[in-house]
Amino acid sequence: MKSATLPNDLPIAYESTGHGTPLVLVHGFPLDREMWVPQLEGLSAAAHVIAPDLPGFGKSIPGLMSTIDAAATTIAEFLTAVGITEKVVLGGLSMGGYIAMAFARQFPDRLRGLILADTKAEPDDDAAKAGRAKTMALAEEKGAAAVIEGMLPKVLGAATHEVRPAIVEEVRRIGSRQQPGSIRAALAALRDRPDARPGLTAIAVPTLVIVGDQDAITPPANAETIASAIQGAKLAVIPAAGHLSNLESPAAFNDAVKLFLPSC
Ligand code: MLT
Q1: Closest ligand 1 atom to the C-alpha of 243?
Q2: Which of 36, 76, 148, 166 has the greatest number of C-beta atoms within 10 Å?
Q3: Over the chain, what HEC string results?
Q4: Over the stretch 186-225, which tens digit does the pLDDT of each residue have?
């Protein structure tokens, strides 16, 4: 693990492997950089893979997320702090995808490509906002382990629950170690995130949209909405994978990224 210091003096922990095109991967909720281990290992011959912990997650402590737009600014500041001034390929899964879309709105000149995995452009509706309030209360009363336990049935696909128990355990392990206060802050950011649809048509870099065919949180229809709004975007549907397609089917996920990178 490495660590960089933001202009506000807070730390951002990260992993990096490989060399060449910078490929920055932003994790989903309520996980951390370790969800990208299969990409840090499997893509290191194809790119310089960099996976930060968002503020308050993993080892980026102290720190807290405030908004999705602020998290995109944090990623830009992090890149400057680690000396990456060239354009990057930015990938994000779910919450990481919301942040990647916000980065594309704020810093289009720092991008050479975009990977939007298991995410959506639509904002929370009233039912989703009510769900956030319940999860905030759960985090406060019972802690991170209860939050990830409640998410597991939906966050992983049926195939993973049936035949890949080690992946279920890995997600449980990563989710359980997060700070309840960081989970609550991120839930507020998720709840209040803007509608990303209006910004999609302005995206002018090569874009790969990835989705697990068993994703029950941001299903393939959400991915199709994104891919059809971005000029020239490619859509890769990963078979037998749920919402965490990079962990559930790493070989197929990495193959899609390897095929995409030369176009960036
Ligand atoms: C995630 O995986 O990051 C979350 O499911 C995103 C969300 O709840 O909107």
Answers
A1: 2
A2: 36
A3: CEEEECCCCCEEEEEEECCCCEEEEECCCCCCHHHHHHHHHHCCCCCEEEEECCCCCCCCCCCCCCCHHHHHHHHHHHHHHCCCCCCEEEEEECHHHHHHHHHHHHCHHHEEEEEEECCCCCCCCHHHHHHHHHHHHHHHHHCHHHHHHHHHHHHCCHHHHHHCHHHHHHHHHHHHCCCHHHHHHHHHHHHCCCCCHHHHCCCCCCEEEEEECCCCCCCHHHHHHHHHHCCCCEEEEECCCCCCHHHHCHHHHHHHHHHHHHHC
A4: 999 999 999 999 999 999 999 999 999 999 999 999 999 9
The Å distance, Cα 96 to ligand 1 centre, comes to 8
Q: Are 117 and 223 in contact (CB under 8 A)?
A: no
pTM, 2 dp? 0.98
> Exposed e or buried b for every residue in 112-143, given b needs 16+ CB within 10 A?
bbbbbbbbbbebeeeeeeeebeebbebbeeee
Asked whether 29 lines ligand 1 (CB < 6 A), one says yes
pLDDT (tens digit per residue) in 4-32: 999 999 999 999 999 999 999 999 999 99
